[in-house]
Design goal:
This protein is α/β, with parallel strands linked by helices. The chain has 16 helices and 13 strands. The strands form four sheets. It has a seven-stranded mixed β-sheet, with helices on both faces. A two-stranded parallel ribbon has the order 1-2. Strand 7, helix 9 and strand 8 form a beta-alpha-beta unit. The chain is globular. The two termini are 17 Å apart.
Length: 432
């Protein structure tokens, strides 16, 4: 039966939740943010969107279920060591941790079984975390990096990807766990379909000067360049692509390589560049009006009007909306406003973001429907190719879906390999 995740704020609904107990104080939801360092330009707008959504709920609704959300940040600078320190510092009263780095996520992953705190890594992290039977405490909804790679290949090669047969694809990627994550899927598809994959890593010290990488691209003359970039790497790559006159309509990035500020550096010269995205910008959506009224007009945001119209800020809203839905689901299931980490874990396994619910949230068109379960911790929402038209990103494809069955086989195999390598590793029984 579909659960109605209604807005619970005051009156009878709140009284029912908190009846028989003292008033709940707050729900602690730390975010291991990166507003400093080489990836700050990427991180800031997403972090702003995330925190603004919970500020809106606190101001408009009194929180969720009458309980304020303490959504606070611990700065990591995207440094794995600092990220682990932030995790340890914040885990005491947290119902969730958001590592905000694939490297940090991989370090925290084993700790989640001991500390029993769910990891929320929306759109990043280890793709095999989709297998909830193995990764009981980890969630990478609404789409994984393997989803992204599958959708990109469909976007450039057709639904069956057959148009890629005989082609050469350069994979320009950050030489970091994030950048390497899609390689198993891409290597498999290169063998299955018959295209040549040319991995081209970019070191952390090479992000702004990629002359060597683009010299290799000029020599290889690939039919497509797929970029798994982040922060300063994106600007370095886009600048080199323009300089070398690489065709922008053959240049496609992951969702972290689709930041408006990065494309504004090359402006009209970047027209035709595309990135996959699990969210789409809809600046006249009702949620944007609510953000304006309850957050921006009250001076409670670090964002400005331009930033709020862009993909990354609105991605932050979508991420926090998913977390809010999990909180509401847990409150309803367990009959309490001030849920704990174990109860939120259940909520994260029981998100049902239907078209109807998306409309109720004022987010129509911003994210595709998806649901999670015990066995499916990703949701696999699919997404769209967004194209830079010289001034902004616009939708450039119909809704794309990854090959779910193929990915499920890979996820199960990779999850088992991880569990075996880290034995004894606790698992859970899931129906279906």
């Amino acid at each position: 039966m579909m659960r109605n995740f209604r807005r619970i704020a005051t009156g009878v609904a709140l009284g029912a939740l908190l009846a028989g107990g003292a008033a709940a104080q707050e729900i602690s939801a730390p975010n291991l943010s990166y507003r400093t360092g080489p990836f700050a330009a990427t991180g800031i707008p997403v972090m702003n969107g995330q925190i603004d959504y919970f500020t809106m709920l606190n101001e408009r609704d009194g929180g969720i279920g009458g309980v304020k959300i303490n959504f606070y940040e611990c700065e990591t600078g995207y440094n794995t060591e600092k990220g682990v320190e932030c995790y340890e510092k914040t885990k005491g009263d947290a119902v969730v941790t958001q590592p905000w780095s694939t490297g940090i996520t991989l370090q925290v992953l084993p700790k989640s079984n001991v500390d029993e705190i769910p990891i929320l890594a929306p759109g990043y992290g280890f793709s095999a975390m989709a297998d909830g039977s193995v990764f009981k405490w980890a969630f990478n909804l609404p789409s994984s990096y393997w989803d992204a790679a599958s959708m990109i290949l469909k976007g450039i090669g057709g639904e069956d990807m057959s148009e890629l047969s005989g082609k050469k694809i350069a994979f320009l990627h950050l030489d970091h766990p994030f950048g390497k994550e899609p390689l198993p899927y891409l290597e498999k598809k290169a063998e299955d379909i018959g295209f040549e994959l040319v991995p081209i890593p970019v070191g952390l010290k090479e992000m702004q000067n990629q002359s060597a990488q683009w010299l290799q691209i000029r020599r290889e003359r690939p039919d497509y360049v797929i970029m798994w970039g982040w922060g300063a790497m994106n600007i370095g790559a886009l600048t080199e692509a323009v300089k070398t006159r690489y065709p922008m309509d053959q240049f496609v990035g992951v969702w972290w390589s689709g930041h408006s500020d990065d494309l504004q550096v090359v402006g009209a010269d970047g027209a035709g560049y595309r990135s996959i995205s699990f969210n789409a910008p809809v600046s006249d959506a009702q949620v944007m009006a609510d953000i304006q009224t309850h957050v921006a007009d009250k001076g409670l945001t670090e964002s400005d009007e331009e930033q709020r119209s862009e993909v990354f800020y609105q991605r932050g809203l979508v991420m926090s909306a998913a977390l809010a839905e999990a909180i509401a689901a847990a409150q309803e299931e367990f009959g309490t406003g001030e849920i704990n980490a174990e109860q939120l874990r259940w909520g994260l396994e029981n998100i049902d973001l239907t078209e109807e619910r998306i409309a109720e949230l004022g987010m129509t068109g911003m994210v595709a429907p998806f649901s999670t379960s015990c066995s499916n911790h990703t949701g696999h929402s699919g997404g769209w190719l967004l194209e830079w038209d010289g001034e902004q990103f616009v939708k450039a494809s119909d809704h794309l879906m990854a090959d779910a069955d193929e990915l499920a086989e890979m996820e199960v195999a990779a999850a088992k390999e991880y569990a075996d390598a880290n034995a004894p590793w606790p698992t859970q029984e899931c129906d279906g």
